[in-house]
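FAQ: What does a ligand-bound record look like?

Like this one, built around CU-O-CU linkage:
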Amino acid sequence: TGAGVLLLSAPPSSAAAAVGIDPGSIAKYVLKMPVLPDLRPHGASITTDYYRMTMEEAYREVIPGFQTKVNTYNGHFPGPVINAWSGRRVVITQTNRLGVPTSVHLHGAHVPSSSDGGPMDLIAPGGGTKTYTYPNKQAHANLWFHDHAHHLESETVFRGLTGTYLLRDEVEARLGLPSGQYDIPLSVRDARFDDSGQFLFQMDDFFNRQVVLTNGKAWPYFEVAARKYRFRIFNTANLRSFQFALADNSPFTLIGTDGGLLAAPYTTQSVLLSPGERADIVIDFSRYPVGTELELRNIIPQAPGTPPDVSQVLQFRVTRTERDHSVVPAKLRTLPALPPATVERSFSLLMDESSPEPAWAYINGKEYDPDRVDTTIAYDTTEIWTVTNANKIAPHNFHIHLVQFRVLERNGVAVTEGAESGLKDTVFLRAGETVKLQATFTGYRGVYLYHCHLFDHASMGMMAQMEVV
Ligand code: C2O
Ligand code: CU
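The answer part, i.e. the structure of the complex:
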């Protein structure tokens, strides 16, 4: 359709449709949403916390009544939560007991290239190990880790290789935001299952992935007290964007995005997250009587004027009243100043949308080549990157490793408030859209990636390398 600027992926392939469990037949709000478990360090020194993680398969109840084979970190689907503190180092030794090579990338982190988890920096299957060092020399941020092994990551991530990494600092800690059991990460994604309840993975299979999982469960419910909660939402889907809203359309407070807190809270009725992006929100349930059931919904249309293909996400149940001493202060942080930019570059994202099975996916006309450096950047330079989605239908997004950037403009309009006014590492681009980003490349030298974070597109080649020299 020519008016397809809002379409979420390439058109559905009729051949691939209607195989597997009908999402409509899955009972909603039957499974309880788990709180993601914290992983404890196995050792600590004055400067460093040491962790061990093993990637291995397990069977878990993802949809009611079935045991699905999933990829896990330490048996957890999705992976556990690492709690890190700004300035304190984290060292993680990863062991790969899966049948395919893996690479662990800490998304949004400022790390040496050797610990960035590049697509060719692989951990051998069947027991290979690698130790990653994360200096955490950056401010608080909602980071996450996931597989990045080239051509494989779309499937290994789909099967479960994602985890949460909360980097905290003093600035965030002293605000008095909801904390502890009132500070809940939500890892939201879609999936598709075969008739026996096993994951069904096909490349670029957007329209058939219509089961929505939160923290590893399909359409779960979560019991809350009538008070404020902080939810750190991670879009860990391969291709699907979500626009989250409460079913009664009531406002909530957006306090942070990919790279941590906004300068000030922003009241909104919805927040849009493309794959890889994060939203940090506060919902105040004190306006609801005990007994209320309230859905968190996805309201993004498939195309202008059409309803979302998947609207239900999760159900909150207000089960009790509780005291609430938490606050959302009017000022959250001071964002780092924007130094003057001295270099400008342009990037164009384009993928084959002539067939249901895209044959190629390019950045600036080229497919990813691990032996090619596409962009050379002088250390400590501030640059402006203009990124365009050159497709007519397919959406993309754009993620840069190493940095947190700022979105200066979207389609020529300056970004002054809302979800794109803070620090970002991933930005959504509908078909035909252009954004202007500013980043300072400092701290580490070496080779890093930038790519579309719709994992299936990255696996097809929409990925490139920069070298900071
Ligand atoms: Cu989460 Cu290279 O990305
Ligand atoms: Cu893409």
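Follow-up question: can I read anything off the structure? Yes, for example: Residues 105, 107, 146, 148, 276, 399, 401, 449, 451, 453 surround CU-O-CU linkage (ligand 1) (CB under 6 Å).
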